[in-house]
Amino acid sequence: MDRYAPLRARTITLVGLMGVGKTSVGRRLATALGLPFRDADHEVEAAAGRSIADIFADLGEAAFREGERRVIARLLEEPPHILATGGGAFMNAETRKLIKDNSLSVWLKADIEVLARRVGKKDTRPLLIGKDPVVVLTGLAEQRYPIYAEADVTVETRDTPHNVTVDLVLETLLAHVQGTQS
Question: Which of 79, 82, 101, 134 could form a disulfide with 30, with the two C-beta atoms 3.0–4.6 Å apart?
Fold first, then answer.
């Protein structure tokens, strides 16, 4: 018997702060479950024909979030898949409701220091340009953690290989759908 079959019935949406591994863990989770993978940020860029940094710079965060909501709504109409969202997507009440109504949501949570180390390697994140990642991530955590906590399950990640996190996500989701975890 395929013990993970119940996890293929609905889309699984990953939420959490930047750098937590939504895309890298999401790709591996999709492979483990034999499901397609979608990255909301890439889909937004494809739909807009420009980078997220350019959308933020030219149109502002509000316009980006509206486009993001529309793209996520479209993606959630597709057959079950693994969906990695941008760090701020779950903060939008409409987007959050779409995710909660149409998928299983997983909050990937990691220590701020781990996240800062990961995101400090790239300069492609609009919210971090010219700023201290620890300060920005701490502020975002204060704002977002109470909302992220509304996800169906929370998976505390560590600075471990992605396959360890994937296994933890699979076991946590399985316990959730079988009713052995709240």
Answer: 82
Tokens representing 119 are 């995101």
Helix ranges (H only) for the chain are 22-33, 40-48, 52-59, 61-75, 93-102, 112-119, 133-148, 162-177
Residue 122's contacts (CB-CB under 8 Å, 6 or more residues apart) are none
| Residue pointed to by tokens 């997220």 | 52
pTM (2 d.p.): 0.92
182 residues of the chain, pLDDT tens digit each: 688 999 999 999 999 998 899 999 999 999 999 999 999 999 999 999 999 889 988 998 888 989 999 999 999 999 999 999 998 999 999 999 999 999 999 999 999 998 888 887 666 666 666 788 889 899 999 999 999 999 999 999 888 888 899 999 999 999 999 986 54
In sequence order, what are the beta bridge partners of 82?
Answer: 12, 37
